[in-house]
# Entry
Amino acid sequence: MAAASLAVLLLGCAAPGTGGDDAQAIPTSTSASPTALAKPAAPRADAPPNHADNNGWKRRRELSAADQRTGQKLAARIRPKLEALRAAGDFAPASTQRVLLDLGITADAIEVTAMRTPIGQETTPPPGAVYAVRFADVGCVIGDVRPERVMVEVRGSAAEFGCLEPFSH
# Structure
């Protein structure tokens, strides 16, 4: 409809007498062809219509192959130390912080927090720590230490928040 209105407006703005017979210069139909109209993308069945726009702040940088290798090397150094911590039954955020500092990682590149209580539950937080280590100004090694596992992932950082996504709900 917008394309048809624009076409009518443009045709109607021609100088008088430039179209020969002015009465014939005005189109008789204002319907646009289906290919002229852009159709909005259909939302995913399980997501609200503006889900992608509303969550754009969470987008992470793409890592180059070199940055990915740098992150994997760092992750390979971190994993055994955190596995040893888990095996010892130590899930305290302070212990996770200490292990990362002992690897020679600078304090300003490290972020460690306690696990959060699951949404909707009124219990104490589960044992464990969530951590992030920034590298090369574009990447992060992120994960957690829990009784049942150690998670280590290499990901790009996000412009809005860096490595650890803030708790929002």
In short: Confidence is low (pLDDT under 50) at residues 1-39. Residues 11 and 32 are 14 Å apart (CA to CA). The first strand starts at residue 110 and ends at 114. The longest helix spans residues 65-87.
